[in-house]
Amino acid sequence: AKTNGRGRAEMFDADLRAELAARAQLEADIQLGLTQDQFELHYQPVMDVATGRLRGYEALIRWRHPERGMVPPDAFLPTAEQSTLICAIGRWTLNHATRQLVAWTEQDPAGHADATMAVNISGRHLATRSLIDEVRQALTDSGLTPKRLILEITETVLMEEPAADAHLRALRQIGVTVSLDDFGTGYTSIGQLQKLQVDTLKIDQSFLHSPDPGTAALVQLMITAAHAFGLDVVAEGVENQEQLDRLAAIGCESAQGYYLGRPAPAPNVTAETGPHAAA
Ligand code: C2E
Ligand code: CA
Ligand code: CA
Ligand code: CA
Fold this sequence. Notes:
single chain; alpha/beta; eight-stranded mixed β-barrel
């Protein structure tokens, strides 16, 4: 048993060392990627359900790795979140996304007059007081009107980061819009919604994709409650016309999903001719 135990300990040790080395390597690669401009943003349109018009975009990060090709966010964000690298990524994203929306607005003022840009903010970044200055700086540098910037945060962050509430309050004071991402996957009850520092609710795509007939009633309930508390609703993961029709019938104002437009790199053209042209 003794040798066995030691064997296990050694194996664990080797595994752990390999994992730590892999993580350190990935962190160094991300750092290098930031300085070498290897990251890029893809933009997915958010559409008005009733009119089919463009409401805005969500910026989704991609890593164009010189050897590994296009790396999806799930493959590097969890590691970035274990250090302050996620804050550097957040700053980079805020700066690029706000500038992009202003550029599109200048190219096509009519199509983008009130269009919004949603940026995902991680819990670790929201926990830092400096995020407030960084957001202010990105708005000043780009010239974007505060309310056109949407910060997306997940429910778990609101529950787990003690400073989240105060920081969101300060951000909303600046005039920025706050959106609760992946709603329904965490532990926020509908009743808690009215106390949270959020303006918009994003219903997680799992609700649209569930085969359970009871789910439709749940979505209806979430939308009714959100509206009662003065919140806007965005449904995520719309993949067909039937889902879109159902959302229209229950009064969901905005939607996002592959059926309406896939995330795509910034086209250097106007909204009328681009891949996300309003229907
Ligand atoms: P999310 O914020 O929930 O973003 C929505 C994800 O759903 C995106 O995946 C998007 O490509 C995907 N999606 C959109 N429409 C559909 C659809 O109709 N069907 C299906 N099946 N999927 C759809 P993506 O781009 O891989 O991003 C994954 C997650 O990574 C995001 O989830 C977000 O949590 C995180 N993320 C992405 N970019 C950033 C960023 O710049 N900063 C931070 N902190 N997190 C980011
Ligand atoms: Ca999001
Ligand atoms: Ca989401
Ligand atoms: Ca998600």
